[in-house]
Design brief:
The protein is 69% helix and 0% strand.
C-alpha cells in the first residue's frame, strides 16, 4: 500500500468519532501504561518480600475475587449515580489503594488491600463501557471498540517492558507510578468527559419514571438471550485465560524456560498492536454472527493445536491462531452486548458481562492445574477445543433470530421521537443498536426500521 493509501486508511480509522470518545481512549491508554500491580504482584511478593508462591497465588486470587464482587455493584452505580461519578469514584479509589498497597508489610494487610485494589480497579469498567455505548454512533461502534482494545494492548505492551526496569530499581516506585497515572485518568474524566447517561423516558400517564426505569439485577438474570451471551463470554474467556495460566506450565513441562514463554506470549501483544486496526477495517461490515462463530472456533482449536507443540517456534504459531480469534472476538462481542442491553439498565448489563470475565479469571487457574496434574497438558488443550466448539454452536443458536439479522422480524414501528424497545424487557426503553453487518432483506436494518427511532450504545471491556 502506498503512503497516500496508508494515510487515507488511518484517517478513515480515526475519523467520525466524538471528542469524548478520544478522552476516554486517552484515559484507557494512560491507565494501561501504568499497569504494574497485576503484572508484577507475584514477583513482588516472592522476590522482594520473600513470601511463598502459594501466598502469592492467594493474593492474586483475592485480587481477582475483588473484581468479581465489584462487577455488579459498579453496574448498579453506573445506572443510579451515572457513568462519570462511578468512574471518578473507582479511579480515585484505585489510585489510593494501589499507593497504600506499596507500603503494606504484614501478610494479612497485603492480602486485604489487594482485595480492595481488585474491587476498585474493576469498578470503572462497566461505566467506561456504558459511556462508550452512549456517545458512539451504532455504525461506528465496532471501530471504536477496536481502537479502545488496541489502546489497552498497546499500553500493556509498553508498561510490561517499562515496569520491568522500574521493578529492578524499586517496586514501591511502580506502585506509586500506577497510583499517579490512575489519578491522572480521574482528572481527565473530571475535566473533559461529561455525563452521558440517557434521559429517563416518561412513564405511562405522565408519571415520573423510576431511577432505573424498571431495570434490576433480576431483570438482567431473566433476560435469557443476554445471559446466554454472558455464558458464552465466560467460555471464551476461560479459553483465552489459558494463554497465561496453562501455557507457561505446559511450556515448562516441555523443558522450555520462562524467557521462552515470554517470547511466545509476546507474539500476542505484538499481533494485536499491529493487526487490530487493519483486521477491524476488514471485518467492520461483515456478518457479526459468522465472525463470532469463527472466532470461537479459532480460539478453541488455536489452543487445541498447542497439544502438538514442542518448540518455541511452534508454540508461537499457536499463539498467532488464537490471537487472531481474540482480535476478531473482542469488538464484535462487545457490539453484541450493546445490542442486547437496554439504555436505562446498561450499567447493570455491563456489570454482569464484566463479571463473566472476572469469574473466568478465577476458575481458569484451577481448571488448568487440575487437568494438567491429573490427565496431562494434552487434555487441557483438547478441552479448549471442545469449549470453542460449544461456544461456536451457542453463538449460532442464540443469534439465529437476533433482531437485525437477515430474515428476522424488525421491531414494530413506534411514534416519531420515541426510541424503540428493541430486545429489552417490557417497560424498558432501549437505545437500539445492531452490530455492523450486512443489511437485511428489505433494505433496512433494525435501527432504521422504527420511525423516528434514536440510538446510542456501548463497548470492552476487559477487559481488561
Amino acid at each position: 500500500m502506498s503512503v497516500a493509501g496508508l494515510r487515507k486508511a488511518a484517517h478513515e480509522t480515526v475519523s467520525g468519532l466524538p471528542r469524548e470518545f478520544w478522552w476516554l481512549w486517552t484515559s484507557t491508554l494512560v491507565n494501561r501504561l501504568g499497569a504494574f500491580v497485576a503484572t508484577f504482584m507475584a514477583l513482588y511478593l516472592t522476590m522482594d518480600r520473600g513470601y511463598s508462591a502459594s501466598y502469592a497465588g492467594l493474593v492474586a486470587a483475592l485480587h481477582g475475587l475483588g473484581g468479581v464482587v465489584s462487577s455488579l455493584g459498579a453496574g448498579v452505580m453506573t445506572d443510579r449515580l451515572g457513568r462519570r461519578p462511578t468512574m471518578l469514584i473507582a479511579q480515585t479509589s484505585t489510585a489510593v489503594s494501589v499507593a497504600v498497597l506499596g507500603f503494606m508489610e504484614h501478610p494479612f494487610a497485603i492480602a486485604a488491600v489487594a482485595f480492595v485494589v481488585g474491587m476498585a480497579s474493576n469498578a470503572s469498567r462497566p461505566a467506561v463501557q456504558a459511556m462508550m455505548a452512549d456517545i458512539v454512533r451504532p455504525e461506528d461502534r465496532v471501530r471504536a471498540f477496536s481502537l479502545n482494545y488496541w489502546a489497552i494492548n498497546l499500553g500493556f505492551a509498553v508498561s510490561s517492558a517499562g515496569a520491568g526496569f522500574i521493578a529492578e530499581y524499586s517496586y514501591l516506585a511502580g506502585f506509586i507510578g500506577e497510583a499517579a497515572m490512575t489519578l491522572f485518568c480521574a482528572v481527565v474524566v473530571f475535566l473533559k468527559v461529561p455525563e452521558s447517561r440517557p434521559e429517563q423516558a416518561p412513564a405511562a400517564g405522565g408519571a415520573k419514571p423510576g431511577k432505573d426505569d424498571g431495570v434490576r439485577i433480576g431483570t438482567v438474570l431473566r433476560d435469557g438471550r443476554f445471559m446466554g451471551v454472558v455464558g458464552l463470554s465466560f467460555l471464551v474467556s476461560l479459553i483465552f485465560q489459558q494463554g497465561y495460566v496453562g501455557l507457561p506450565v505446559a511450556m515448562g513441562a516441555d523443558g522450555l524456560s520462562s524467557s521462552d514463554f515470554g517470547t511466545a506470549i509476546a507474539v500476542n501483544g505484538v499481533l494485536i498492536v499491529v493487526l487490530q486496526i487493519p483486521v477491524t477495517r476488514f471485518i467492520e461490515h461483515r456478518d457479526p454472527r459468522r465472525l463470532l462463530i469463527i472466532s470461537a472456533l479459532l480460539a478453541g482449536y488455536g489452543f487445541g493445536l498447542t497439544a502438538f507443540a514442542g518448540s518455541v517456534g511452534v508454540y508461537a504459531l499457536t499463539v498467532c491462531v488464537w490471537t487472531l480469534a481474540e482480535i476478531v472476538n473482542a469488538p464484535i462481542q462487545t457490539g453484541l452486548i450493546v445490542q442486547l442491553s437496554p439504555a436505562q439498565g446498561r450499567g447493570r448489563y455491563q456489570g454482569m458481562y464484566t463479571m463473566s470475565w472476572a469469574v473466568a479469571a478465577l476458575i481458569a487457574p484451577l481448571m488448568s492445574g487440575v487437568v494438567i496434574d491429573r490427565y496431562g497438558a494434552a487434555w487441557l488443550w483438547g478441552t479448549c477445543a471442545v469449549l470453542g466448539t460449544v461456544a461456536a454452536f451457542g453463538y449460532w443458536l442464540l443469534m439465529r433470530n437476533l433482531p437485525g439479522a437477515a430474515g428476522a422480524v424488525p421491531p414494530a414501528p413506534v411514534p416519531a421521537g420515541e426510541p424503540s424497545a428493541g430486545t429489552a424487557p417490557a417497560g424498558v426503553v432501549v437505545a437500539g443498536s445492531v452490530p455492523a453487518g450486512p443489511v437485511p432483506a428489505g433494505g433496512k436494518d433494525a435501527e432504521a426500521a422504527p420511525a423516528g427511532g434514536t440510538a446510542k450504545d456501548l463497548a470492552a471491556g476487559q477487559a481488561g
